[in-house]
Design a protein that fits this description.
The complex is a heterodimer of chains A (109) and B (184). With 109 residues, chain A is mostly helical. Chain A is 54% helix and 11% strand. Chain A is built from 6 helices and 2 strands. The chains are: A mainly alpha (109), B alpha+beta (184). Chains A and B meet through loops of A and strand 7 and helix 4 of B.
């Protein structure tokens, strides 16, 4: 979709994931797309260095978000939204429909 | 010229900028160091954030910085004789969705310093307050405001464009209170 514009499929997947979910961490994204974690981490590092993403730690996890101070944030979101609308419905649903409610410790799945 | 170890933060920034200009690398001071300059060091930051005016290859910056004794460590440039750390955040020079157009030039013995204006410095701090809820940045925005001539209506217009007019009202109240206190 946007891979040729962004330089790689990894770049597109990382951006789509973070834009859709609002935040994410390397392992979560790599598991979701079944991609190598170092590839995803490199993309996250690249976007953070470029000011497109911002990160902070939560416990032992480094969480990434789109940088609200990025000057082209609005336009980037519009582009990613449009790209997402071209994704297969099943993948779009997987991205959007994520369990957000709490799960008590020890509770069987 | 004095040694880098004896230079103030602003002098270091002017020295580095002037050296980079010889390499046709044009950068502008932003971030915490700009706050330090505009608040006469009431707020102190060790970081010197130099934002590129146009895209520059990282390697060119590295070569130029090494000529004046800085070496790169984890994206930052450090010098053994000074505590000031130089960073080159990614451009473009902007506050929120707005490009920064007004650059102030201040002359030091070590060179000419290009720095964002006090009004843009306030917007820069307010952006951190608006988007991350950073209270320290709000305090810094107020400090810059009371020590410098700033354009409040421009800041209001910018805040509106960013969808943060409620945040602006908080800033304005704090700014007015501080101005009244400083007159007493």
């Amino acid at each position: 979709m946007l891979a040729s514009l962004l330089g790689s499929k990894g770049s597109e997947k990382v951006l789509i994931f973070i834009a859709t979910r609002g935040e994410g961490y390397a392992r979560e994204i790599s598991q979701f797309f079944d991609m190598d974690i170092s590839t995803i981490q490199n993309q996250l590092d690249k976007f953070e260095l470029g000011g497109i993403m911002a990160s902070d730690t939560k416990g032992r996890t480094r969480l990434y978000t789109l940088n609200p101070r990025y000057p082209f944030l609005k336009e980037l979101k519009q582009l990613l939204d449009k790209a997402l609308s071209f994704y297969p419905e099943i993948e779009r649903e997987r991205l959007v429909m994520e369990r957000r409610r709490p799960r008590r410790r020890g509770k069987p799945v | 010229m004095k040694s880098i170890g004896k230079m103030t933060q602003a002098e270091v920034a002017a020295f580095v900028q002037s050296h980079l200009r010889k390499h046709k690398i044009y950068v502008t001071l932003s971030g915490g160091a700009a706050v330090s300059i505009y608040t006469v060091n009431r707020y102190v930051s060790a970081d010197v954030d130099l934002v590129e005016d146009t895209y520059v290859d990282r390697n060119r910056i590295k070569i130029a910085m090494e000529e004046i004794g800085f070496r790169e460590k984890n994206r930052y440039f450090i010098h053994l004789d000074t505590q000031h750390i130089v960073e080159f955040p990614s451009g473009p020079l902007s506050v929120g969705g707005e490009p920064i157009k007004h650059i102030k030039e201040i002359k030091y013995a070590t060179g000419i310093l290009r720095v964002i204006s006090p009004t843009d410095c306030v917007k820069d701090r307010l952006a951190a307050y608006y988007f991350w809820g950073d209270q320290q940045s709000l305090v810094q925005a107020v400090l810059v405001g009371i020590h410098n001539r700033i354009n409040i209506s421009e800041i209001k217009k910018w805040s509106q464009a960013e969808g943060k007019i409620e945040g602006f009202k908080v800033f304005l109240k704090k700014y007015d209170d501080e101005r009244q206190n400083s007159r007493r």
